[in-house]
């Protein structure tokens, strides 16, 4: 999960519809909590535009040398649609200002909803010359809101560094909570011994 070191102390002004998450720089390590799992392997992915040879598949190929490149007007959109309603906690992007310069996103909006017709902005973040994995938590201001429940997630690149027009994103991962291995059990036991004795026989 992201550390405090990944965010600068000074927060940026929030957008009207959603809180900003500070200015993010990125981390060389992709680290998430053990109780999270990658959720978007079976989702339907699409983008608003792409340059030939740099399409949506590059976002999911686990190769940091490839990238999606947009080819159109801003905002540049990545759409992730799930077959059923899912719980999501974390979006992680790999971006590299040293390699991509003006193609590197500087402001990103995260939106969620049942479909394109009712997407709502839930978070905006600003990036400060990021190099590495950028972790964007989807939790709300209420500590009880640790995840969102949605059919669709949209990642919108609102602007790029150095006033760049098109954008590069090298990887995107979407994480949600692991299912509880014990049905109807409010607590999430991890060790085999706890799971064994967690139900009445």
Could you list some keywords that capture this structure?
single chain, 2 helices, 4% helix, globular, 201 residues, mainly beta, disordered N terminus, 6-stranded mixed sheet
Overview of the structural elements:
This protein is mainly beta and 201 residues long. It has a domain at 44-179: Jelly Rolls. The chain is 4% helix and 40% strand. It has 2 helices and 12 strands; from the N terminus they run E-E-E-E-E-E-H-E-E-E-E-E-E-H. The strands form 3 sheets. A 6-stranded mixed beta sheet has the order 1-8-7-10-5-3, with no helix packed on it. A 4-stranded antiparallel beta sheet has the order 2-12-6-9. A hairpin with a 6-residue loop joins strand 7 (105-113) and strand 8. The radius of gyration is 18 Å and the shape is globular. The relative contact order is 0.25.
């Amino acid at each position: 999960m992201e550390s405090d070191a990944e965010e600068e102390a000074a927060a940026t002004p929030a957008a009207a519809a959603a809180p900003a998450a500070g200015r993010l720089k990125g981390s060389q390590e992709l680290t998430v909590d053990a109780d999270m799992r990658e959720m978007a392997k079976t989702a339907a992915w699409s983008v608003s535009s792409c340059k030939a040879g740099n399409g949506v598949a590059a976002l999911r190929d686990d190769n940091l040398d490839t990238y999606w490149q947009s080819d159109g007007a801003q905002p540049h959109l990545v759409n992730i649609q799930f077959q059923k309603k899912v719980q999501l906690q974390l979006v992680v992007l790999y971006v590299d200002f040293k390699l991509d310069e003006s193609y590197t996103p500087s402001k990103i909006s995260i939106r969620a909803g049942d479909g394109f017709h009712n997407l709502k902005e839930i978070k905006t973040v600003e990036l400060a010359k990021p190099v590495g994995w950028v972790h964007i938590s989807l939790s709300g201001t209420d500590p009880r809101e640790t995840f969102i429940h949605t059919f669709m997630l949209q990642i919108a690149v609102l602007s790029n560094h150095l006033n760049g027009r098109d954008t590069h994103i090298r990887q995107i991962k979407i994480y949600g909570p692991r299912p509880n291995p014990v049905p109807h059990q409010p607590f999430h036991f991890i060790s085999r011994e706890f799971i064994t004795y967690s139900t009445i026989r």
